[in-house]
Amino acid sequence: MSEKKDMLAPSIVLVCICLVASMLLAATYQITKPIIDDLAVKMANESRAEVLPEADGFTQLDMDLVDGVTEVYKADNGAGYVVTATFKGFGGPVTVMTGMDADGVIQNIKVTDASNETPGLGSKTTLPDHTGKFQGISGKITMDKTSTEGTYVAPVTGASYSSKAVFNAVSAALAQFEQIGGSF
Length: 184
Fold this sequence. Notes:
This protein is α+β, with helices and mostly antiparallel strands and 184 residues long. It has one domain (52-180). The protein has 3 helices and 7 strands. It has helices at residues 2-51, 128-131, 160-180, and strands at residues 58-60, 69-75, 80-88, 93-101, 106-113, 141-142, 151-152. The strands form 2 sheets. Strands 1-2-3-4-5 form a 5-stranded antiparallel sheet. The protein has a two-stranded parallel sheet with strand order 6-7. The radius of gyration is 24 Å and the shape is elongated.
């Protein structure tokens, strides 16, 4: 009987410690979750303002989305749209935010997530040297030098999968603009 009693006391203490630790962790989560959510919204709004600087605020549109598009925002002052799309790159999903004016002309793009792409290769798709290639383009784009349809956008050398993911995201954003009712 003494052996059972010797084992029971430490077990009860361990269970109590685990319960207290779990409750403290849950309380910390409840306290920090709104702060983390607010920060995520703030960062997303800053990214939207970065790709469409003429906008004074944004309203999310509730509509049918083109394949790959995850969200569409309209500038409150009519300056244009910001479309976010995600496509598979070499290492995983690549998320791109595309800002277009009211005529569908790309103002800026921002690769908001390419964290799984190969450092030094696929990650080059996030640099201004590549993202700047899309500025001023509207309508159809192509990565095929021989194509006569669309504006040619050169991929990053050695990063064809990552470049294709960015290209597909921007193409989807342009298609979403057409679906909204815009014309080029």
